[in-house]
Amino acid sequence: MADTPARPYLNALARVRFLAALHVVLYHHRDDAFMAGVPDAIRQIVNGGYAAVGLFFVLSGFILTYTYLGNPRRPLDHRSFWAARVARIYPVYLFSFALGAPLFFRFSVATVAPLADAARMGAGAVATVLAVG
User: Are residues 84 and 64 in the same domain?
Assistant: First the structure.
């Protein structure tokens, strides 16, 4: 049985998905300094960025299904699916962790400093988890 060609790439949906992700990123930075000079009409649009999360997830799920379940003659190979997902996502997680962990520990240690006396009494691990989490 000959392998059928891959399905066409969904440019329009990929662009809408990108815009939804951008909307969410702007929403998370709506109170930052770079949003200070933005007109109120744009600010109102950015303030609705929480609604773009659902759109992003629905489009992502559709694109994944379209891509991996597109050929009814070829069953889904779960190993190759998960290998492709890990290869695509895990490096971003590692990069984000390497970038964010020093900042997290730097600023979370500053908030746990008042609990130093509790740490000396043996309750430090619990207090640290509760204060950071």
Answer: no
